[in-house]
Amino acid sequence: MSVDRSRLHIALQRSGRLSDASKDLLREAGLRIEAGKNSLTARAGNFPADLMFVRDDDIPTFVSDGACEFGIVGQNVLEEFALGQAEPGFERVAELGFGRCSLKIAAPERLPYEGPRTLAGQRIATSYPRLLRRFLQDSGIDAEVVEMSGAVELAPRLEIASYICDLVSTGATLEANGLRAVDTVMESQSVLIRTLRPLDAGRAAIAEQLLSRLQGVLATKESKYIMLNAPSEALKGITDLLPGADAPTILPLHGRPGHFAVHAVCQESVFWETLQKLKDAGASAILVVPIEKMML
């Protein structure tokens, strides 16, 4: 079957929590995802884009080669791929805030750990050899990296390696295998990437539309719309307190000379402590509401 190059192609992880969260993000951006004829593809019925469901470690390749214009993948997978490329053919567009985990060094409970120097001369099993080698090099440690494609946590029990380097989310898998996390190689979350291959004018325009929608969705995750009233002499102090707000709208209040309504989009979390500070600075009738949609 030929690929329709009048449409965008977005590479997503085939299954799992990252796949579900990625599809949810696209739905929030207004894409109506229709089931495809097989489990490897799906179509957006109201937007010129197709979803490609692939192995997570294939996503950087698909995007770099231009087979897909966009991809959503974990930073750990992306960085492991990038370390093996002279010039990766993708760019990072945005951190997405879901799929958070850590790539950690783990040791059996019986073994002591006193920092990276403990790893000198040891065998360390991992599915992320490039990231591990970078960590060891940055730490000035000479150790043997044992590459495994899965079941890394079994390596110490099978005496394949003394330590492991693996992804940790809750730590339950490590605990079940008598291991404990002792050091962090990198923190990871899902990221949006796009190809560096040139697009024709039609697809370039569609890509910008999609980016605008996704950036709007991401901007609303923590953003809140604040409305309040304030006297003129308090405006400077109040606008300085608004978290992450840029150029709030200030309007005179009808029938109340010297008093104004202040409206602002706050792109940081708004806590009760912030509201109290606003009130103490002279604000009244403070209202904080969520933002459903926003186009930047």
Can you describe this structure?
The structure is a single chain. The chain is an alpha+beta fold. The chain has 3 domains: 8-98 and 190-220, D-Maltodextrin-Binding Protein, domain 2; 101-188, 3-Layer(aba) Sandwich (D-Maltodextrin-Binding Protein, domain 2), CATH 3.40.190.10; 223-290, Alpha-Beta Plaits, CATH 3.30.70. The chain contains 8 helices and 16 strands. It has helices at 17-28, 59-64, 75-82, 129-138, 172-176, 201-222, 235-241, 272-280, and strands at 8-13, 33-35, 41-44, 49-54, 70-74, 90-95, 101-108, 123-126, 144-147, 163-168, 179-188, 190-195, 224-231, 249-252, 259-266, 284-290. A 7-stranded mixed beta sheet has the order 2-3-4-1-5-12-6. The chain has a 5-stranded mixed beta sheet with strand order 9-8-10-7-11. It has a 4-stranded antiparallel beta sheet with strand order 14-15-13-16, covered by helices on one side. Strand 8 (123-126), helix 4 and strand 9 (144-147) form a beta-alpha-beta unit. The longest helix has 22 residues, at 201-222. The model has no long low-confidence stretch (mean pLDDT 91).
